[in-house]
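Submission sheet (multi-component)
Chains listed below:
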Amino acid sequence: MNADQPDFLAGLRLADIDLVMHPSLTPESGEQVLEILEKFRAKAVKLDILAVEGAIYLGPESTVPHFTFHGRPIRDWVAELAGAAESVVAIGTCASFGGIPAAGSNPLRATGLQFLRKEEGGLLGRDYTSGSGLPVVNVAGCPAHPDWILQTLMFVAQSRLKSEDLDRYHRPQVFYSKLAHHACPRNEYYEFKASAVAYSQQGCLFENLGCKATRCESDCNERLWLGRTGSCTRGGFPCVSCTSPEFPDGFAPYFTTEKIGDIPTTLPLDVPKAWYVGISGMSKLACPVRLRANAVSFKKVDTTEP
Amino acid sequence: MERVKTLTVSPLNRVEGDLELKVDIRDGRVTRAFSSGVMFRGLERLLLRRDPLDALVFTCRVCGVCSISHSSAASLALRSAFGTAMPPNACFMRNAALAAESLLSHLGGFYTSFLVDFTNKHYAQRAWYAQAAAQFTCLNGSSYVRAVKARKNFLAFLGLFVGKWPNTLALQPGGVTKAMTFSELGRARGVLIELRDFVEQQLLGCRLERFLELESGDDLRKWLEKDAHHNSDFGLYLRAADDIGLESLGKGPKRLLCCSAYESPDGSALYKSGYLDRAPKPFQLPKIAEDTGHSFFAGKGGPEHSLMETTEPDADKKGAYSWVKAPRYGGKVVEVGPFARLVINRNPLIIDFLENSGSNVHTRVLARVYEIPLLLRSVEDWISRIDPEEPFHMPHGKAGNAQGIGLIEAPRGILGHWVNIENSRIKSYQIVTPTAWNMSPRDSEGNPGAVEQALIGTPVEDEQNPIEIGHVVRSFDPCLFCSVH
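Outcome: structure written.
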């Protein structure tokens, strides 16, 4: 519903997608929904795309499951419908990798459809492929960008997505081969290590405030969110790398940067470590006064020197 | 002997989250109802032993519809635990963002959840049906499509204010992370005026100010006589609602609760707190407790105060039928939401309806729609008070051992976060959501929750198509994702 260019209704129309059942959108309730799902399960009607949101609970061992639909565990419904589907798309980091429900000791054994964090397997197993021959396509993100969701559904509906278009975590490369850091408006500050020390300041959020955008595989700052107006770092808060299989536990602490000496332990993915260590000290020394002053101010500061 | 039939509606679609309803029907009327959240999520348990600030990352993810609401409650709970203040700008930004989320939610609740039921074939013979079908049909009715577009266009407002939504981290204990420039404020005003246009031209057929002048049912009836009002989406709603008799459906528990919300730096607030049980009474925080008598949780059964409470799932518990707990106020079942807010704050129009027909399907929808112009006007006011030259954030301290409470009004009603910090780690975290208040199961005394009570007496003409049940439930605009957090 938050999609733009194309918006949600136009996207469905462009890809000729008929939305058969969606919990918050389609009119059917109760038995009518059950009938639709039973027909798909029995393969009486072809299920072109099964899109799943949310982690799946494999456990805990208990006579009453923690998530049911008509008395049966949701994991069984999803597994059976996945067996009948031409394509399966996991929407969001939970359905892709387990996400927040799988944080900590994961007592409910929450998992993604075909991955648990970085490990292949999940609910359906590493060898699963849908009717189209593709594995589960993971549209990661917490939340996933509406473009990523809608355009993936459009590619899949038109059979234009091939397995070589997916990355190592089965995400469509077209959305996940950049870093969230690319096109961040704070990049000039980043280059000179002119860093904010508190929120609402203009400087880079990486050195002190925990930003993981240099480790987050997404195109957030190029694509932009909400009518192309915002992103996490444009909103002034650190990226938590929510498109990663290791979100959330792999990226804590979220609001401070852990360091050894002066060097952050969360170094950028796109720069060799030695280069970073060598150049960051130099660039800090070369930082213009203009950036040094503005990095720690919430509003523009005019300086006489550049 | 009279026949009692049990009807299970699962899923009840077009509500947020997974809801299963079981109702007993005798002589065509509901005699008993059981409302079940069929999923456990355990967000509160995931937070145990974590850094208190992790609550900002985790709790906004309780729900994609009420995400800023949870951010507001979590940042307020932490602010009270840390003993920090925030600058005036941050206060106005928080109010604007929270109201923007309510506007998005109310538009969705009205157009994509509630009105779609008017296009149900059950009403095919009604005079207004053809018009309703043309305008309100799911995914392609003319008003539905325009509302989806207006809603989508308005998202830019949140992009400018909080960067990303849902799941923004812009609201912090010390204020907001985003400093606004004059240019950004100008853009936000532009986006807001486009939403004003939609509400005036499509939803109401009149100026916001004209609509907010209405003070009684008579006023509203006279208002409806004018063509532009009559033909607006809300005009069509009023005519259909009257014909169906929505005012006689879904009587609430007669007790209403709301907390202080949308506070300004001078201490004034758009909504003051209060409790109504026949007469208005002051709101008393310690009266809020959660009962787990019929919920799948271990516990002593009776009400437990939220700072003491735990969330220990017990899926095998005898007599339990929901993953939603049962919040109670002084042991009583209460209703929360826009209707409660407007009654407790003595809004003349809503008070007139309260006195004539109480809380019911129609008055709940009316209050929700009434909040749209009310909040829009307030947002215009708050953003005019933001001063780009003044700070938006101040550093907050840390707390080794402290307790914090954050109560706010989310789109669907009162939302509370309770945090207990010990040795700089979260010792306990409890969330009490609006939909838990409204859609709770029975408590240990056997008192049915608000929606379970509201369903009693509901006529069901066609058991294959129990549309009346849909009206009652959707009038509460339930969010099950939140309530099974």
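Remark: The mean pLDDT of chain A is 94.
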